[in-house]
Amino acid sequence: MPDPTLQAEPPTASRPTGTPVLSVIVPSFNERPNVAPMIAKLDAALAGIAWEVIYVDDNSPDGTAQEVRRIAQLDSRVRCIRRIGRRGLASAVIEGAMSSSADYVAVIDGDLQHDETRLPAMLAALQAGGHDIAIASRHVEGGDNAGLSSRFRHVLSDGGIWLAQVFLPVRLTDPMSGFFMLPRPLFEDLARNLNGQGFKILLDLVLSSAAPLRVLEVPARFRERAAGESKMDALVMVQFAGLLLDKVFGGLLPLRFFSFALVGALGIVVHLAVLAMLRGSTGLGFEIEQALATVVAMVFNFQLNNMITYRDQRLKGPRLWRGLLLFMVVCGFGAIANVGIAHVLYEQHETWTVAGGIGAMIGVVWNYAVSATLVWRSR
Ligand code: GDD
Ligand code: MN
């Protein structure tokens, strides 16, 4: 007589369930009140599909990650990646997707603005073959942009779309969409070329593919934000312009270098303005006035680089002051190298423009390279 327990099914809890077909990646920053409703909506929309949701949270002060973990302890389809010391929607999405082993990855906002009921249709369309990526679009028949918070946002959004169209290898009616789905292996393929900065991960993906992606656009509504506030601002737009530049120049120079050089150029304007002001009003003597203008320009450059160039690893509190000090030391050496080299070249009978230009260039490259490793160390 065989032992009946040997034939019994193992208890459900210990039975391997296999990888899900779909990983839904949700980048999140201060979305705590939206977490539970979001997961409930996914659960309802994805009935009958093996799915998981991966929150990628940048250590939100409101405790979004803790809320996700609370639910994850009750539901193994819920996962959370908590990143510390970093910010950025695009890089969060990339890390979430890279942690998936599913057949497909979808990206959706965590603030309930995107219409998650479109997910099964997107999945079915990709599974049917013929398309590389399904994108929820607000601008195809049946889509709707009503949730954009202000007129200003509409202008920004339309302007960005127009700008992106100029550079895009494929026609997209909504290149700024933050809601899309693609096969996970394709994402992994594209990942090595991704820029990863800023908000526009979709654009980054589309621009990173060697062969034009076969795009399916799915009409979708864009709802009003339910709770919390948008993290999109003017700096995000600057980064967006940077992303386009970076792609146009084929990644020849790192995007940060452009930003750093641009900030440097603004610094010169500030320097001259301060100098002119001091000259006109103080009578301190040129050397002192020049030194004061230099310090002001350095502080200005440091602040701007900390806000824009290194936005994703912005220094705060005591690290800000330490960073500022280091930055001034680094740039001080940069200035010495700049003047020294220009002097030698000038002595060798180069014109003052060539000598000055090469000196300045070497100064910028030095400042950039050294401050990237010493001041804004990537963790
Ligand atoms: N991890 C992480 N880190 N998540 C972030 C960050 C960040 O630095 N910034 C924003 N998020 C998350 C938000 O919590 C939200 O889930 C999602 O990314 C979108 O951010 P919102 O701040 O809600 O963006 P939005 O509504 O202004 O922009 C949406 O619409 C744009 C088109 O107008 C997004 O879908 C954009 O991708 C889209 O281009
Ligand atoms: Mn939003």
Task: Write structural notes for this entry.
With 379 residues, this protein is an alpha/beta fold. It folds into two domains: 22-228, Alpha-Beta Complex (Spore Coat Polysaccharide Biosynthesis Protein SpsA, Chain A); 255-375. It contains 13 helices and seven strands. It has helices at 4-7, 32-45, 64-72, 89-98, 119-127, 151-167, 184-191, 201-208, 234-248, 255-281, 286-309, 317-347, 352-374, and strands spanning 22-28, 51-57, 78-82, 104-107, 133-137, 180-183, 215-219. Strands 3-2-1-4-6-5-7 form a seven-stranded mixed beta sheet, with helices on both faces. The radius of gyration is 26 Å and the shape is elongated. It binds guanosine-5'-diphosphate-alpha-D-mannose (GDD) and manganese (II) ion (MN). Manganese (II) ion binds next to loops.
- Mean pLDDT across the residues is 84
Helix % is 40-55%
> How many beta strands in the DSSP annotation?
7
Briefly note the structural class of the backbone.
Answer: alpha/beta
How many helical elements? 13
Radius of gyration: 26 Å
Question: What ligands are attached or bound here?
Answer: guanosine-5'-diphosphate-alpha-D-mannose, manganese (II) ion
Order of helices and strands: HEHEHEHEHEHEHHEHHHHH
Name of the level-1 CATH class of the largest domain: Alpha Beta
User: What is the spatial order of strands in the main beta sheet?
Assistant: 3-2-1-4-6-5-7
Key features?
disordered N terminus; single chain; 2 domains; binds manganese (II) ion; binds guanosine-5'-diphosphate-alpha-D-mannose; 10% strand; 379 residues; Spore Coat Polysaccharide Biosynthesis Protein SpsA, Chain A; alpha/beta; seven-stranded mixed sheet
